[in-house]
TrEMBL record, chain A:
<feature type="signal peptide">
    <location>
        <begin position="1"/>
        <end position="23"/>
    </location>
</feature>
<dbReference type="InterPro" id="IPR011249">
    <property type="entry name" value="Metalloenz_LuxS/M16"/>
</dbReference>
<dbReference type="InterPro" id="IPR050361">
    <property type="entry name" value="MPP/UQCRC_Complex"/>
</dbReference>
<feature type="domain" description="Peptidase M16 N-terminal">
    <location>
        <begin position="51"/>
        <end position="181"/>
    </location>
</feature>
<feature type="domain" description="Peptidase M16 C-terminal">
    <location>
        <begin position="192"/>
        <end position="366"/>
    </location>
</feature>
<dbReference type="Pfam" id="PF05193">
    <property type="entry name" value="Peptidase_M16_C"/>
</dbReference>
<dbReference type="InterPro" id="IPR007863">
    <property type="entry name" value="Peptidase_M16_C"/>
</dbReference>
<keyword id="KW-0732">Signal</keyword>
<protein>
    <submittedName>
        <fullName>Insulinase family protein</fullName>
    </submittedName>
</protein>
UniProtKB/TrEMBL annotation, chain B:
<keyword id="KW-0482">Metalloprotease</keyword>
<comment type="similarity">
    <text>Belongs to the peptidase M16 family.</text>
</comment>
<dbReference type="InterPro" id="IPR011249">
    <property type="entry name" value="Metalloenz_LuxS/M16"/>
</dbReference>
<keyword id="KW-0378">Hydrolase</keyword>
<dbReference type="InterPro" id="IPR001431">
    <property type="entry name" value="Pept_M16_Zn_BS"/>
</dbReference>
<dbReference type="Pfam" id="PF00675">
    <property type="entry name" value="Peptidase_M16"/>
</dbReference>
<feature type="domain" description="Peptidase M16 N-terminal">
    <location>
        <begin position="26"/>
        <end position="172"/>
    </location>
</feature>
<dbReference type="Pfam" id="PF05193">
    <property type="entry name" value="Peptidase_M16_C"/>
</dbReference>
<keyword id="KW-0479">Metal-binding</keyword>
Length: 437, 446
């Protein structure tokens, strides 16, 4: 309903599933007869229900077929149990239900949002079960999705941010599955066949390889009944094997990609951490000070406030099942590229050696603990969180203990963790923009 | 035609408490106790459509400068205090408004009131800060528009679709205007528009309305109103006299087409139902995966990789009903253009079916509930409606008005407004991204 909105003083919101709350939602957990883990939070206030079925079926499982996981996931609603995509879409929309699905490097998931009137909820659930448990993978639709994926790949070539991001992951991970593009390459996507997708689906979209997150106006008994129906529709299967470990970089790398843009897109970074990592809290809080807290971070202060070099500058750790990335990013007009890269290096180097000041750490603790209730204020956020907690099998009190853990940290612990985990002389630097010199 | 809806409507009505301070500040409060937080927004009745030529972007640059300090809270303090309280804080500028918000633990509401009320009147606008911040805004412009071929096309499209309506100018401003901007321009803009009697305070969350009013009186009450705030000149768009077409050349991989018809807005519509019929029309074309553009252009004929239709009647001035599309691999832009025009033609010639209408209505009914999941959305609706002059009460009538629309009314607005004489078409003509290195192969360096 709102028109063109320009959100001005920045802040890129990264869904890092991190900071937390004072009165966190209490997560209930159980496992169904055939091995599907269930995570449930009641939210009786609004007559609506969100469910998310998540599998260890992300792009890191692509093997030698980059794009396989993503295409498999995006084919779910393109035909199921004999219904065409038109019919599925019509039936979902006729009852106001919303189907959603997506992949990341670790996960492939399918979601449902419905109102909880009995008739609509039942119809939405039945339809959703067809989509998640009986997809048909019609050949004709597959070919269309394949073509659309190729157009998407082409579109990335006109987007310096995408070019930079792909080059960054490639330089950082090399042959590790996390280095492969989620949406594949032109060659790999063209080579995919429906049979590949069916095989991938049959292996990965199974009870023991997944979990169900439920948030909404259903009580525990109803949630259990829902979970039984969902798991009953899935074969038991096997959990996927652990992903290979990530090897740290042994030397610095710089990648330059010429591009006729007004700005250079700059990414600097390295291998980061894992979910459940013992350094998770130290790295998280250190990064809050460095570049993770928006307007008050050091990078923002040095790059944007003091020098006016960039609209956006950030840093983050993106923990995954295996080591994720630590990334610093910004954009600046081409003539200022060298200056910006130097300031980033200086800020990071200083922080890596000295850590946060006592004042900075204190301020960050207040920020993170005070902001705790904001993180789980609505059903969309809660379903996202419990999905993450369930997927990485983090403790069920993860949200409750977050603030306590953060508040117990010392400057020394943070500095020590940054010294151990970040090697400033082995960073990857990607610069998109400008001519080849 | 059936008036029965596909799904039953679940009414979840929550009253909005409305107050007005002596200095003219409007206060709207809506309770939502699902989480111990509150969304606090201050909306000013000023945005890019208030700006004269040569000063485009001034509302947005001023918005940036609102974070650069007052006597009481000098540069940097605002953000520091917000962070200290774990709040989220930002602002946005649109064509018709400039708004500031905090999302904060409900028991710290007073912090937001203290900070926000202080900068209604006491901004210092330090020249050195302005100089740096203007560079930040230029980077923002490069990032949002200059380096994005589709955004660039949209900007040029709007510049051509409107001759004299201020909707022709980008919210972020033209680069030449940014280059020429002075801190004095901001000061004048600030003094002219930033006043309690030109603003609406919206609070949604786990709050007690009476307590909010008390806080508003304490912090905003002492602010002096500005006696005479002359409204902007009308700048009513002259009637279009025939098809307008442009080509936009930019480095890009994919062509893109954008089309827009001149249509009325809720504020000025002589027939009150027409904007609702236009909204339904947009939903018939592009309201979910079962809508016509998805079904017939993306699937069906398989000619487009994306296609969309968009209309919003919530502006202060009449705007466009727009359609856009991108061909899929191996298809021509011309084909997509013809298909979009054919869709319009069909809407003019035949009424939509009962099934289609009922599906769109089911989505409207469900969205009424889903939208309540986000406190920010709820606040946005109240604040924007009030600020463009429609009044927040419209939010309550909106769904009823939408559900009352008939196939005949949809066909009638298609016939009346989606005509070639009020159409503007922009085509993105992709230029090679780098003639020497067309594949953008990364070069590795040590």
């Amino acid at each position: 309903m709102l028109k063109t909105i320009i959100v001005a003083p920045l802040v890129l919101l990264f869904a890092l599933f991190t900071a937390q709350v004072a009165a966190a939602p209490k997560i209930e957990h159980w496992t169904t007869a055939n091995g599907l883990r269930v995570y449930y939070v009641p939210a009786p206030e609004l007559p609506m229900l969100d469910m998310r079925l998540i599998f260890a079926a992300g792009s890191a499982r692509d093997g030698d077929k980059p794009g396989l996981a993503m295409l498999t996931n995006s084919m779910l609603d393109k035909g199921a149990a004999g219904l065409s995509e038109d019919q599925l879409a019509e039936q979902f929309e006729a009852i106001g239900a919303v189907f959603s699905s997506s992949t990341s490097s670790d996960m492939g998931w399918a979601g449902l949002r419905t109102i909880t009137l009995e008739k609509e909820q039942q119809a939405a659930l039945d339809l959703w079960l067809k989509v998640v448990s009986k997809p048909d993978f019609p050949q004709k639709d597959f070919e269309r999705v394949q073509k659309l994926t190729l157009v998407g790949l082409q579109a990335e070539k006109q987007d310096p941010a995408s070019l930079g991001s792909k080059a960054f992951y490639q330089a950082l991970y090399g042959d590790h599955p996390y280095g492969q593009p989620e949406n594949g390459t032109e060659d790999s996507v063209q080579a995919l066949k429906v049979e590949n997708l069916k095989a991938f689906y049959q292996q990965h979209y199974v009870a023991k390889n997944g979990l169900l997150a439920i948030v909404g106006a259903v009580d525990r008994a109803q949630a259990e009944a829902l979970a039984e129906k969902v798991s009953g529709a899935l074969p038991e299967g096997e959990a996927a094997a652990a992903l290979p470990e990530v090897k740290p970089l042994t030397e610095a790398k710089t990648v330059k990609i010429p591009y006729p843009s007004a700005q250079a897109h700059i990414l600097v970074g390295q291998i980061g951490n894992k979910r459940g990592d013992e350094d998770f809290f130290t790295l998280y809080m250190g990064n809050q000070v460095l570049g993770g807290s928006g307007f008050t971070s050091r990078l923002m202060k040095e790059i944007r406030n003091d020098r006016g070099l960039s609209y956006s500058v950030y840093s983050y750790f993106a923990p995954l099942a295996q080591l994720g990335v630590f990334q610093i990013g910004l954009q600046t007009k081409l003539e200022q590229t060298d200056e910006a890269v130097k300031v980033v290096g200086d800020v990071l180097g200083k922080f890596q050696q000295e850590g946060p000041t006592a004042e900075e750490l204190e301020a960050s603790k207040k920020d993170v603990s005070g902001g705790f209730p904001l993180r789980t204020a609505n059903n969309s956020q809660i379903v996202e969180y419990i999905g993450m907690i369930g997927f990485y099998q983090l403790p069920l009190d993860y949200l409750d203990t977050f603030t306590t853990k953060v508040n117990a940290l010392t400057r020394e612990q943070i500095t020590e963790a940054f010294t151990r985990r970040i090697q400033p002389d082995k960073m990857v630097t990607v610069i998109v923009g400008g001519d080849e010199k | 035609m059936s008036t029965a809806h596909a799904i039953e409507r679940v009414k979840v009505e929550v009253p909005v408490h409305e107050y007005k301070l002596d200095n003219g500040l409007k206060v709207l409060v809506k309770q939502d106790k699902r989480a111990p937080i509150a969304v606090v927004q201050l909306w000013y009745k000023v945005g890019s459509s208030y700006e004269p030529n040569g000063s485009t972007g001034v509302s947005h640059v001023l918005e940036h400068m609102m974070f650069k300090g007052t006597e009481k809270y000098p540069t940097g303090e605002f953000n520091r205090i917000i962070a200290e309280n774990g709040a989220e804080d930002n602002a946005f500028t649109g064509q018709d408004y400039t708004a500031y918000y905090q999302v904060i633990a409900a028991d710290r509401l007073e912090v937001a009131f203290d900070l926000e009320s202080d900068r209604v009147r006491n901004l210092t606008l330090p020249p050195a800060e302005f100089k740096k911040e203007l560079e930040v805004v230029k980077e923002e412009r490069r990032w949002r528009t200059d380096d994005k071929p589709t955004s660039l096309t949209r900007e040029q499209f709007e510049g051509v679709a409107f001759l004299n309506s201020p909707y022709k100018n980008p919210v972020i401003g033209w680069m030449a205007d940014l280059d020429a901007m002075q801190v004095e321009d901001l000061r004048a803009w600030y003094e002219r528009w930033y006043a309690p009697n030109n603003a609406t305070l919206v609070v949604v969350g786990d709050v007690e309305p009476e307590k909010v009013l008390e806080l508003a009186k304490k912090y905003y009450g002492p602010l002096k109103p500005t006696e005479n705030i002359p409204p902007p000149k009308p700048q009513t768009e002259v009637e279009q006299k025939g098809l307008r077409t442009i080509k936009v050349k930019a480095p890009a991989e994919l062509p893109y087409i954008l089309m827009g018809y001149k249509v009325p807005a809720m504020v000025n519509a002589k027939e009150k139902w027409e904007p609702y019929a236009l909204e339904m029309l947009a939903s018939i074309l592009d309201g979910g995966n079962s809508s016509r553009l998805s079904k017939e252009l993306i699937r069906g004929k398989e000619i487009a990789s994306s296609a969309s239709a968009w209309y919003s009647g919530f502006g202060r001035l009449p705007d466009l009903f727009s359609l856009s599309g991108m061909p899929t691999k191996g298809e021509k832009l011309e084909t997509v253009k013809a298909a979009l025009l054919e869709q319009v033609e069909k809407l003019r010639n035949e009424p939509v079916t009962a099934e289609e209408l009922s599906r769109v209505k089911a989505q409207v009914i469900a969205s009424e509930i889903y939208e309540r999941d986000s406190q920010q959305n709820q606040a946005n609706v109240l604040g924007s409606l009030e600020t463009v002059g429609l009044g927040y009460k419209l939010a309550d009538e909106y769904v009823d008005n939408i559900l009352a629309i008939t196939p005949e009314q949809i066909q009638a607005v298609a016939k009346k407004y989606l005509i070639e004489d009020s159409l503007t078409i922009a085509e993105l003509d992709p230029q090679p991204i780098d003639p020497n290195k067309p594949k953008n192969a990364p070069r590795f360096e040590r």
